[in-house]
């Protein structure tokens, strides 16, 4: 294992064991206060456990036993980079200087640091902003720069703490896609509230509740067959498989699903005729009893198969698709199994990625 953690923090009632293999992305999911950020802090070296160990690439970073610290590598020497909700760029430095900072601090030459910075800014799609100051960037741009800064330091492990939580919904899909591409090569732990992040970014998921790992496994397995209460609440994403047809329209094209639906969505750089999946949350689906129009929306005429409570909402299932609506909306619709309804989801809510 590249990363192993087996540690406890008594006053936060956190006691967990995690393992992440080389090149793998693990998502930590769980309700507020479950202990996700605490686990990241233990790995990053920002928090000392009451007992336990943290190992990265066979190097013992933390070892606390019998009330004594046997090993403690300080945060700056762990080869671990952390990306938080806020980009936290140094305001008085240019974008490029922010990204050069890590390589320079590691003793690389000015020229090498500059080349590395430009390469990463290019990869995350903001090379044209290199000379700007952080204060003049949008939230999405700043977060891309923060990704470049984190990776320019060549960390062995990347920790992401809700990296998209502070972004506008319009820019989230594109930043998520950038992360998906760069994370493919990294060993990574991502804390998220958003099941879509887990579905698109993570190979494996660990569900944390009350400071304990209550469920873990391959993302697809956990989302398809959740065994914990939290897992069940977040599962049920809509997922359509098919072929992407680029046509240059408002969203660049549509996915023709093997189940017949045609779906517009956000597909950054997906080549035409690629096998792809379209993913969207049940809560992004509006339900109507009459046909709806209005672009850029996807509308599917479906037959309701079940209506059941789902947390504070009501989940309306129609075969392989699901919509979560408020209890009031469900009451107004007054639909039950067998009813014909229209599911509608904005193209901006649909993420497409290679299958
Ligand atoms: N700095 C702190 N000092 C003491 N207790 C803390 C501290 N930070 C968090 N806690 C407590 O530790 C427990 C775990 O919190 P943690 O922040 O790790 O949860 P989380 O899963 O990251 O939550 P969220 O999703 O709300 O960010 C909670 O009971 C919390 O109140």
Automatic annotation (TrEMBL):
Listed A to Z, the keywords are: ATP-binding, Molybdenum, Nucleotide-binding, Transport
Q: Name one GO biological process term.
A: molybdate ion transport
Which part of the chain is the ABC transporter domain?
9-235
SMART domains noted in UniProt = AAA (SM00382)
| Any one GO molecular function term | ATP hydrolysis activity
Kindly give the Pfam families that the UniProt entry links to this protein: ABC_tran, TOBE
Q: Which domain of life is it from?
A: Bacteria
Keyword Ion transport listed: no
Alphabetical list of InterPro entries matching this protein: AAA+_ATPase, ABC_SmlMolc_Importer, ABC_transporter-like_ATP-bd, ABC_transporter-like_CS, Mo/tungstate-bd_C_term_dom, Mop_domain, P-loop_NTPase, Transp-assoc_OB_typ1
| Span of domain Mop | 293-354
Q: What is this protein called?
A: ABC transporter ATP-binding protein
Q: Quick one: which gene encodes this?
A: modC
